[in-house]
Design brief:
This protein is of the alpha+beta class. The protein has a single domain (2-75), classed as Double Stranded RNA Binding Domain. The chain contains two helices and three strands, in the order βββαα. The protein has helices at 38-55, 65-68, and strands at residues 2-7, 13-20, 26-33. Strands 1-2-3 form a three-stranded antiparallel beta sheet, with helices on one face. Strand 2 (13-20) and strand 3 form a beta hairpin.
């Protein structure tokens, strides 16, 4: 498990968090830290690391996307009579 802090391109700091999950998988997350100093970004990254180990690194599916993006089927193209 490690946390590296780097300068973010548009200002601020980026935390690069790499953890080994309890199921044996590795998870990497690079996010802009909501902090104004490198030491605060390090603390935020360490807190994020603990959260990932505790709850897992799974991403939640976005709800409601399927109703906006429907797959066209053959029935959509049948002629109207």
């Amino acid at each position: 498990m490690s946390v590296k802090v780097r300068p973010y391109l548009d200002g601020g700091w980026e935390a690069d968090v790499m953890v080994l999950l309890p199921n044996g998988q590795r998870h990497r997350e690079r996010r802009r830290a909501p902090a104004s100093s490198p030491s605060a970004a390090q603390r935020w990254g360490e807190a994020r690391e603990r959260e990932l180990v505790r709850h897992g690194g799974r991403r939640r599916p976005v709800e409601g996307v399927a109703k906006y993006f429907r797959l066209a089927t053959a029935g959509c193209f049948k002629p109207l009579s």
